[in-house]
Amino acid sequence: MMESIRTGVQKPWIKFLLAIVVISFVFAGYFTSSGLGSDPNAVATVNDDDITANDLNAAVQAEAARYGEQFNAMFPTDERRREFRLSVLDKLINSELVAQEVKELGLRASDSQVVSQVQDIPAFQVDGKFSTAMLDQLLVRRGWSREEFRQMVGDDIAQSQFIQIFSDTELAMPYEVEQRIALQQQERTVKAFTIKSEQFLDTVSISDEEIEQYYQSNLDSYKVAETLTVDYIELTMDDLAADIDVSEDEIKQFYDSNQDLYRAEEERRVAHILVNTEDKSEDEAKAKIDAIAARIASGEDFAEVAKAESEDFSAEQGGDLGFAGRGVMDAEFEKAMFELESVGDVSDVVESEFGFHVIKLLDIKDGDVRPLAEVKSEIETRLKNDKAEETFYIKKDKMAQLAFDRYDSLTAAAAETELEIKTSEPFSPQGGQGIFANAELIKEAYSQDVLVDGKNSSAIEVSEDHAVVLRANQHIPARTKSLEEVKSQVTTALKRKKAREAAAEIGQSLVAKLNDGEPVDAKLADMGIEWKEASNIRRNSSELGFDITRIAFKAPKPTNGVAKAMGSELMSGDFAVVQVTKVNTPDISKLSDAEQKQAVSRIQRSMGDSGYSALVKATRKDADVVKFEERVQ
Amino acid sequence: MEVYSTEEEQIKALKDWWSENGTSIIVGVVIGVGGFFGYNWWKSENIAKQQQGSNEYQTFTQIDAANEQESFISAANQIKADYADSGYAILAALHLAKKQVDNNDYAAAEKELNWVVTQTEGHDLQPLMKIRLARVLNAQQKYQQAETLLTSITAESYAGLKQQVLGDTYLLMGDKVKARSAYATAKESTESYIAKNELEMLVNDLASYESEAVKADDAAAPTEESTTQQSTDKQES
């Protein structure tokens, strides 16, 4: 082995190869920092790009927020919630694939496009003008750097360009428009009758074997989930607050000693010039800002200098950041802007995390103290809540301690905390109403300690101002109802089924007769059934009812003037027989412009929609996608 | 390996080794370092070019195509020439094709889309571009060409869309049996809700043109439950 390498070294191409290897070591640090190898926090990799657990969490939160309060009801178990997370992961993978596609096509937003896009976002505007303060607020809240945000906006713009392949440039060919309109607005003349299944309910015969068989093959419908009834005591801050009295004196005293709380916040409007330290050294930046400060000091117009020199989004507005109170800006920046004495003053050079600034004070909005009468109820609630909060934590600790010490009963805990023992409705492991839908509570209720050992639960925090201790009262295990219990239910279901079949059988035989040209009117008269007719109905017509109309538009058209009958069961269980006697195709040229336009955009949407999902599917098929499902909780 | 007993021998060995291999190492280092910086330079040039393309494309899309047709067309062609290998050229060509369809100039649209099909060779977008081209061929009654083009698409992901347009082609040719079966396949393959609805309408409208083969299949299918779909089939067979 060694020998072969040593002889190998003699050959020039091996030497060259070795040199390349050496170089690759030299730059190894550079390449690994740019992201070779997968992150242990990645929940998936898409062609070597990671989707991290953080990305997934953010997306799951955003998606869950769309369901709002229904989320818990729709995804009640850990299992279902995991499925939900995995489905969100799939969406993330698809959008990563699209992002890569955008890159591959070389679509990339320019800096000026990013800037103008950001300035147009309504959330960043105050009185219709862009405000950097609003942007900074968002960045701080989300923990994004400016560069990251730029990147995101840029990706967004490039992606919307990409989407134009499927939207703005999508075609609607005239022949397609014509065909779709002709279909959409087609009119049919229809004859139909309905055989009610109800009339057979009493005449169908059912044997015990059939009942048994039906029961056995539908066992799932007769399953009952396990349920648990619990005794519980609950402590809420609201209940406590309701019992607390606050005197006028206390209110007045609080008001007097906390004037600051009732002062409308002072706001200042400032303009600034930024020299950032992202793309240059500290010394260069400092030199540049000093020069700028000198120009301002010598009397140059602040706004003009800002426009020309500032490296911030606000440059275009002469550095104007709009009004801002405390707690919005970078700490050093804020200190400087509130130290300026009068309108028109310009600060010395200030250093913040973004770089160096000079700041000019443009305007001040003073804060006034609101009168006692106006804030009285606010103070009362506050004082009540403060007192209630204190009591809440004392009582909660007591409740938890006693529930633990005297684990075989709630009586002691209830007496000591002056709470009433209540009994719940039965609830399943999927949860019940109100606090019994709380996942933490359900988990405790169905735990070994509570369910099996019969102990009190711990003090469960249903929310931060609501605590519950519970113990099992009655547990009913899951079971399947016996045939005896559900016999009448089974019999009814079976009768309905047979009645439907009876109606269908007669209906089908009538269809066959009609299509063979035999008369059926006598038979219909016997059964007391009448034909219903409607001329020139459209797809959305209600004349014959929704489901018969639907069948009428599925039925074959007449051939050589002969109508063909078609039978179909309705949702109600009745059986309908339908004949189409005439089909009218509307005159396209008589359509209004609006109708034409609607058809065109419908086709564009349909084709674009199909095209986009086909492309995503195609890229996914060609991509190297690895999912680490075990890392998704 | 040889064992070098004295320091001198070791130094000599190193010197020999260097005189033998020094040149190739230096050449290797130069190529490596040069390549590294060259790549970085090329990358930033590339980014700048893409961003420039983006700006020009934006300016182009803001042109009022209806009233300033000439500048619209010349701007599109400029982008196609300047950024031939980028997505902006493809986008510009697609805008042009749409404009030409709006003007009923199908021959020109065909030419434009042919260019895009060539340009997207090997890319996942190509089948979509072929499908778009086939629709323009349909509009010119070039049904055979459209059929050949569509059947050349093998990408499974595009099966739904392909069969839908193929259905249109057959219907325009007057072959309702083939059209119905293509629409039915399309309906099964598509994931788009809007498209599914539309295809259902198309399939139902051709209810009398179910092919013999399909009928035979349905007749063999079990029909113990009289659901709507099955009773329909039962009747038609």
Automatic annotation (TrEMBL), chain A:
GO CC, one annotated term: plasma membrane
Subcellular location: Cell inner membrane
GO molecular function terms listed in the Swiss-Prot or TrEMBL record: peptidyl-prolyl cis-trans isomerase activity
Entry coiled-coil feature ranges: none
InterPro entries, per database record: PPIase_dom_sf, PPIase_PpiC, PPIase_PpiC_CS, PpiD_chaperone, Trigger_fact/SurA_dom_sf
Keywords associated with the record: Cell inner membrane, Cell membrane, Chaperone, Isomerase, Membrane, Rotamase, Transmembrane, Transmembrane helix
Residue span, PpiC domain: 265-363
Matches recorded under Pfam families: Rotamase_3 (PF13616), SurA_N_3 (PF13624)
Broad class of the protein's primary localization: membrane
Transmembrane segments: 12-31
Keyword Zinc attached: no
Gene3D superfamilies (alphabetical): 3.10.50.40, Porin chaperone SurA, peptide-binding domain
Signal peptide: none
Membrane topology summary: Single-pass type II membrane protein
Family in the record: Belongs to the PpiD chaperone family.
Name of the featured protein: Periplasmic chaperone PpiD
UniProtKB/TrEMBL annotation, chain B:
Transmembrane spans: 22-42
Subcellular location: Cell membrane
Membrane topology: Single-pass type II membrane protein
GO MF: protein-containing complex binding
Ancillary SecYEG translocon subunit/Cell division coordinator CpoB TPR domain span: 15-207
Alphabetized InterPro entries for the sequence: SecYEG/CpoB_TPR, TPR-like_helical_dom_sf, YfgM
SUPFAM superfamilies per the UniProt record, alphabetical: TPR-like
A GO cellular component annotation in the UniProt record: plasma membrane
Keywords for this protein: Cell membrane, Chaperone, Membrane, Transmembrane, Transmembrane helix
Residue numbers spanned by region Disordered: 213-237
Biased composition (Polar residues): 224-237
Pfam families listed in its UniProt record: TPR_21
Signal sequence interval, chain numbering: none
Keyword Transcription: no
UniProt xrefs under PANTHER family: ANCILLARY SECYEG TRANSLOCON SUBUNIT, UPF0070 PROTEIN YFGM
Stated family: Belongs to the YfgM family.
Protein name: Ancillary SecYEG translocon subunit
Organism, as annotated: Pleionea mediterranea
